[in-house]
Amino acid sequence: MKNFTYLDGGSLLCNQDKTSRKKLQGDDSLAAAPKISCNYDNEADEEKTISFLEHKELGSLQFTLKYDLRRSQLNVNILRGEDFPLISSSNVSFTYVVVELQPFSQKYEAKAQTRYARNSISPVFNDTIHYQIPVQELQGQTLLLSVYDINHLSAHDLIGSVKINVDGNFLASGAERIYKENLKFEDDNPKLVGEILVGLRWKKDKETLDVTIQEASSLRIMDQDRHTSSPYVKIQVFINSFLVLKKRTKVEKKTLSPKFRKTFSVHVPGDSLTRNTQLVLTVKHVAKFRRKHVIGQLYFGLDAKASTSEQWEIIRKGSEYVEMWHELDAPLDNSTWQSRSKVNYLLFEDNNSDDNHSLAELSDRSDTRSDSALLRYSRSF
């Protein structure tokens, strides 16, 4: 049996008995299991498969919850699954369960998984995960258990998940509760990509805009194998649709709640902060082979949403430093940029390329002429 122990701050201890390393024997019932192919030739095939999963019986998961009052510890014991569908076209099943306790897991990044179960549509896990959490915090927690099938060619495939509200009052008595819940397929909402804490200060006398990237939280998981992300933030400032600043923070590896604590300054002449300036923050994930993928974006200035417009208005009227949390927007898609400005077009091109290509080359040229560009802006005001 493998035990995960989460201590304060989300540190992890892992112990595994030798007996649990033995592979499960092949299950003859694999031949009769429902088969779902996830080797997609195009996006339409993928959408059909997802639609099928949403209406298919996906099996069930059996587990128990028990709270240890002496240790202030919640024990989640994943017992077994029943009648999982076959995801792989090779008729081989490698399944495991990812366990999250929300919002506890988001605060401490305390996410764990069971061992892999091989060649069985009704796998036996018998893995226990321990959460070090005060009894008074149990009420209001949500337990999410997601069953995945290992895909060696791409991101692991979600079979289905179970979500329950933790009954803190019942567990506080020390009693054990047994669950057997049917799996449901719920595709992640792409709009819920995370939050970011941004500080802004407009020094009108010095014609300088200070942008501070403090931290982010609850970022979307981009590395499905490790159930984490390696994010950084790119800062772009446009004046009259010209890119005059492009900077980035360092990469914070393997975290969904990165701390950046980085300030950038850009010269913004005259009163162009209100009329012509756009600030765009793009949170990206560094994947294998240094490929970059957009997690989410945030816009200040023209065409901005209400929350960022509020912060923009506050700094425009004074010189105080203002910090606010904002929900990240999903990255621009093909239909979005076509109906909007040149800046949106450049951002769309940037989102669909690595930082070392395409828009980066254009940005380098913009950076080299930024002084002359700003001089032209100054003369125009």
UniProtKB/TrEMBL annotation:
User: What GO cellular component entries does it have?
Assistant: membrane
Which Pfam family, an example, fits this chain?
A: C2
SMART domains (UniProt xref) = C2 (SM00239)
What the entry lists under PROSITE patterns is as follows: C2
* InterPro entries (alphabetical): C2_dom, C2_domain_sf, Synaptotagmin
Q: Which domain of life is it from?
A: Eukaryota
Q: Quote the PANTHER family the UniProt record gives.
A: SYNAPTOTAGMIN
Name of the molecule in the record: Synaptotagmin-2, partial
State the taxonomy lineage: Eukaryota, Metazoa, Cnidaria, Anthozoa, Octocorallia
